[in-house]
Each structure stands twice: as structure tokens, then as C-alpha cells.
Amino acid sequence: MAKRTSIQARILTVAAVLLIGAAITVSYWALSTFKSQFLPAMQKKAAVVDQSLQKQLGKVLDYGVPVDRLRGLSKVFEAVQKDNPDIAYLAVAGKDGNVISEHWQVSRKAGAGGRRTLPASDLFLSKLPLKQGGHVVGWVKVGADKTYITRRMEGIVSDIVTVLVVSGLMALELLLFLNAFMVTGPMASIREVMTKVKEGDFTSFVSHQGSDEVGRLSAAVNRALLKVEGLYRNLVDAGGRLAGNSSLRFAGSDGMHPLVSDRLRFIRPPLFLLVFSESMSLSFFPMYVDTLYKPIAGIPKDVVIGLPISLFMLVWALSMPFAGQWSDRAGRRRTVLTGTAITAVGLVLTGLATNMIYLLIWRSLTAIGYGIVFISAQGYVTDHTTPKNRTKGMAFFLSGFFSGSLCGAAIGGILADRLGYRPTFILSAILSVASAVFVYRFLNEHRRKSQADAAPKVRLGLADFRMLFRNKYFLTVTFLSAIPAKMALTGFLYYAGPLYLVQLGVSQSASGRILMAYGLAIVIVSPISAWVADKVRKRPVFVVCGGTLAAISMLMVHYLHSLPGMLAGVVMLGLAHAIGVSPQLSLITDMQTKTGVNITVGKTIGIFRLSERIGNISGPLIAGVLISTFGFSGAFLGMGVFFLSCAALFSILMALFTRIDNRRIRDSEMVTA
User: Fold this and answer.
1) Segments forming the whole domain that contains residue 443
2) Which residues pair with 293 in a beta bridge?
3) What are the DSSP calls for 443-473, one per residue?
4) Does a structural domain hold residue 545?
5) Of residues 539 and 618, which shows the higher confidence score?
6) Contact call for residues 658 and 573 (beta carbons, < 8 A)
7) How many other C-beta atoms lie within 10 A of the C-beta of residue 429?
8) b/e map 386-415, b = 16+ CB within 10 Å
């Protein structure tokens, strides 16, 4: 087993290195070509702008206006520089060369109203004469900023690195699926079928088909099984009895059923694609809402902009219980197909929305589709795992979810920067359709109706809610850890963070890269943290650390008040959730067993997941109120203090409850003794 795993790892590594190496080579060639062609293009552009201004001003001079009496030049210069950010300097000079009017590009670093001047060596300077009556009366000068190419190159290099990271993750997802679909899955199916045959069970066959070596081996195994079944039919007498060994099992009237192993690999690609498509708007969605904003009496603008995010989370939370029950009855393939189709339609209509009302409706539709896919994918993982490997299966599910989220946020920011908001929504819908195509082609359950009817159904009643909400541990973890964590996710990362980055003057591409850091921290740290938490068995400590780090992330953004501070805050929040979120559910189930709460684990998980959505829904609204009242800096400070207070109170209450319970246990043991 270890040797086979090592060979697979080597194959995947070689394939990944070849793919990423090819991407790096193409990117370097494209970057070199861009750099070599950009400088001459800037020189030509400066000359073209110079000629345009010469023509415009020449018309005014033809009316007899003296060159030193020209008015409104500053407005003309500002309009030119607004359309041409690489033009750093514009001026009109007299015949003797003395400057009459000039305008420098405003520097963001200089602050509002500040101006940045550059030495002549940093300018591509174009100079053309202004004539009046056939005589030169002045000069118009245009200076293109040579440092502009450096800034553009930095942005392009960052985008290329982002694309390489995303393409690497996508290549890894594709390689994992292809390996499972074409090699490891079929080989595992063959091994399982042969094991059944060894035990006398001839009811299954290998479903894999293909012209490669694995496909030919599968066909050979299936032919042998059919031959044995034919011999069995010939040996059965008229009464249906078999002479000799009666322990052999053959297919009945339904025929042999296909056997497919490693099914978990089949759900991850469509989940990755769907989460990718939905997350493409993560870095710019609040700004898109701002373009549709119309004042609503009595409601601050910041709250209205956060409303679509909160409504999305509300509808998503409400849709999942019903979607889960429908998925149990109808089957995972059908519900995932329906969910991806609804999501695609919702994304298209979101991109075409013309006002806030339509936007809220279409975001609700998208949330329904997203909820159907999310809960169906979780159900698929549950169907194809056992209690022994279910935690590993859920980790596999979550890693695919966060991988798709970070890739979507990064690519969505780049596309929005270059194509605009609406085309990016259309592209995300196309990606969602690709997810549906994948499901239609590859996700075959082969579930019998009896199996679907026998699937466990979790129904939540008011008595279940009352029982759990009387449990001090459940209330403490839910309201002091889980809900604040979700508030930080939607209130800061989805809502306040993108708006704050706009205030800092950051492009959509850079916003996507910064928000991508959250997903990277989750993907890298979460498995390690979960493993350590299981080994150490001190889950409350990890939850407290997570809450404290979340508070520190908000305070870092508040005090640093800069782009590096924002990046540090996003990374810190990712670390906080990687460390503190995973142990929450395990802590609840552990304490539930300790305190003797008579409720199933499935119902506990359902109520806990539903309760923590309060944070998802309230996060953007609370952040909007804080921003409209105290500004971004005050809002981040308030959120940091709140998260720190929750972590401190959680620590105190958990220590107090544990001490009380331990004392009660000791007292009961003494009485028994």
C-alpha cells in the first residue's frame, strides 16, 4: 500500500511540475514581450496626446485669443489625465519657453490635493508648437511617466503570480480527479470485486470502461464474471437448486450491479467549480451593490449595501434543511444538478440587475441553489463514508470548498478590474454551468430505491432546540465562539474589507489577492490545527486562541490603517478560523456526552449549524451600522473589542463550568463510596 501511494504521489508531482513549469515559462515570455513593447507605446501615446491638445488649443488661438489669456486649461488637463493615467505632466508655455499653465498627476501618496513632480529623466516629454497667424506663439508639452511602467509591471507580476497559484490549485484538483477516475478508483473497484468473488459473492461488476490498460483489465474481469455466471445458470436444476457449494451468491432478477470505489473524488470537482463561481464576486460585491444603491428613508447607506449579503446568508441557511430532506429522497445527482442550474441562473440575473429590489431577489435565488448544492455535497460525503473515515471525508469536502473560494476571489478581482462587474458575473455563471455538466457526466450514484428510502433523515423539533439551548456548553460555544466567527467572516471579509480596500485606493485585482490570503491560511493551517487539537485534546484552548486571534486581526487593521495592515489582518483572521472553528463542533459533542444530553449527534450538528448562521446574517448589518456611525477605523476597533470580550468570557465560563461539573462528579463519587 505504501509503495503504491508513493508511486501515485510521484506521478502527481511530475504532472504538477510540468504544468506549473509550462505556465511559468509562458508567463515570463508574455511579461518580457509586454515590457519590450510598452516603452515605445508610451512614447507614441505621449506624442498622440500632444497632437490632440495642439489641435484643440490651435482652434482657440485661431479666434485671436492670446496664448497667455487661455482659460480653463486646468480642467482640460484633468480630463486628459483622467482618461490617461500614464500621462504625468501637461503644460502650456509661451514662445520664450516660460510655463503659463501646468498640471501634474495627483499622487495618491501625497494625499488629497497633493501633487507629485518628477525629474525630467522620468518623463517621456513631447513638445509641439502652438501657432497663431502662421507664427509660433507658444508650446504644448506632454510628459508620459516612465515610472508608470514599473507600477504596471508590479501589478501584472502580482496578477501572474496569483494566476499561477490558482492554476496550480486547479491543476491539482484536475489531476486528483483524473487519477481517481482513471487509475486508483477502477483499480480499487477491481480489487473489491475480486475480494467479493473470493468470498463467493458474484453480484457485482466493475463499472469502469476504457481502452487503456485499466479499462482492458476491467473488461477482462467482467467477462470472467459473466462466464462464471453462465456456468452457474447451466448447473442450476429446474428447481433452482445448485449441486455442491450452496454458499455462492449470484445476481438475481435485477442483474449484477456496478461497483465504483473512491466516489468521494467525484463530488469535489463540481463543488470546487461552483464555489469558485460564487466566490468570484467576493472582492467587489459591495462595490457592485453601491452602483445600484438608491436612498431608503431612515436606513444608512452602509447598512443597505450590506443587506444583499445578509439576505443571501439568511436564504442559504433556511434552504438547507429542506434541501437536505429533498436530497435524501431524490438522490444527490439530481439535487446537485438542480442546485447548480439555479445558481447559474441567479448569477446571470444578479449581473443584469437594474435596481436593489431585483438584486435582492436574484441573490436570494442564487442562495437557494447554492444551499442545495452545499447540503447535497455534504450528504454525498456522508453516503460514501463510514463513521471511521467520515471526519477525513468532511475535511476533504471543506478543503475543496475553501480552495474554490480562494481561487474564485483572486480571479474574480482580476476579471472585474479588466472586464467590469457584470461580465464577471456572466463568466461565473458559465463556470457554474460547467459544474453542472461535470455532474451530469460523471456523478452516477447507482443507488437503489431501497437504499435511498433507508437513508437517515434528521428532523428538528422545538423540543430539540429547547433541550440544547438549556445546555450551558452549547450556548457558550454557539454564542461566544461560533456566531462571532461567522460575524467576522461576513461582516469583515465579505463586506467591510472590500469597501475599506477601495478607500485605500487598491485595485480590484489587489483586493482579490488580499482576500485570497484568508483561504490560503485556512487550507494550509486548518488540517494541521485539527490534527494537533485531536492529539492534545484541549479543544477549549484552541477555541479561545481562535477568538483572540480574530480580535487581534481587527485591531491590527485599526491601528496600522494601511494596505500591509489589511493584509496582515486578513491572514490573521484566516489563522484564527483555522485554529478556532474546527474544534467547536467536537467540543459541543464532547460536552454533550459529558453532561448526558439526550439528543442525537445529527440533530446537534443541524441545530448548531443553523444557529451559527445568526452570525452570517447579522455580520454585514452590524458592520454597516458601525461604519456609518464611527467610520471604518472605529468599526474595526469595535469589532476587535467585541471579539476579544467574547473570547475572554468564553474562557471564563468554560473554566467555571468545568470546575463545577468536576466538583459535582467528585461529590457523587464520594457519596457512592
Assistant:
1) 263-298+331-457
2) none
3) ------HHHHHHS------HHHHHHHHT-HH
4) yes
5) 618
6) no
7) 22
8) eeeeeeebebbbbbbbbbbbbbbbbbbbbb
Residues 284 and 413 in one domain: yes
pLDDT in tens, 240-285: 555 555 566 666 555 566 655 556 677 888 888 899 999 999 889 9
Amino acid residing at 85: P
Task: Indicate whether 306 belongs to any domain.
Answer: no
Contact 530, 396 (CB under 8 A): no
Q: Looking at the structure, do residues 25 and 86 belong to the same domain, yes or no?
A: yes
- Buried-exposed string 279-310: b where 16+ CB fall within 10 A, e elsewhere: bbbbbbbbbbbeebeeeeeeeeebbbbbbbbb
Cα torsion 267, 273, 276, 280: sign: negative
Kindly state whether residue 305 falls inside one of the protein's structural domains.
Answer: no
- Domain at 433, CATH number: 1.20.1250.20
The one-letter code for the residue type at 372 is: I
Q: 648: closest CA among 533, 534, 552?
A: 552
Q: How far apart are CA 443 and CA 265, in angstroms?
A: 10
Residue range 26-83, pLDDT digits in tens = 777 877 777 777 777 777 878 888 888 888 888 888 888 888 888 888 888 888 887 7
Phi–psi pair at 672, nearest 5 degrees: -65, -40
Residue 673: per-residue pLDDT: 55
Does residue 317 belong to any structural domain of this protein? no
User: How many independent structural domains does the chain possess?
Assistant: 4
Give, as one character, the DSSP assignment of residue 243.
Answer: S
Count of CA atoms in the C-beta half-sphere (13 A) of 140: 23
Distances (CA, A) of 628 to 261, 305, 444, 496, 622: 54, 11, 50, 11, 10
